Amino acid sequence: MGEVGSSGTIHGLQVLKVSKPKPRGRPCQGFFLVSDFILPNAEWDLPKLLSSFDPNQATAISKIPLTSIPRSDFWIWSPASNGKFSTKSAYLTDQKTCLQNHTALSSVLWNKLWAAHIHPRHKIMWWQAILDILPTKCRIARVVNIENITCPV
Question: 41 lies in a domain?
């Protein structure tokens, strides 16, 4: 069963994008399932949607077409064209994000850095600092469990 709130579009259909709708009232116990909001006759349970989400989100969710053919829910990995998760598609998605962050910085900045009359080691250090990829204790702590990330000096 899928979780209500997976932002995206249904393959082959144009639908209003609902990004992570938040339930009304007190925080819910666990997750809502899509099937919780579908009636046995394969229609949206509008009163339940309206009581669980704000009207705009409930309307957007109710516009998603439902099929009358019984079929169990399944996960779709939207970054892949075939909808299936793979290590390659995860890597390419990550690289695309990194590339977007990298190109967001002005090429003028990079040209100034690489043309600067400083030692090549310093250029590399500045490049790593700008991209936040210096191997600092804080960055290493994101991957390895380190209790104290303060400098021992």
Answer: yes
Max CA separation in the chain (angstroms): 72
Helices (H) and strands (E) in the chain, counts: 6, 0
d(C-alpha 82, C-alpha 41), whole Å? 29
Domain that holds residue 19: 1-73
Q: Looking at the domain assignment, is residue 116 inside a domain?
A: yes
pLDDT tens for the chain, 153 residues: list them. 444 444 444 444 444 555 666 676 655 555 678 888 888 888 899 999 888 888 888 888 889 888 877 777 778 888 888 888 999 888 888 878 776 666 666 778 888 999 999 999 999 999 888 888 888 888 888 778 888 888 777
Q: Answer whether 0.70 is exceeded by the pTM.
A: no
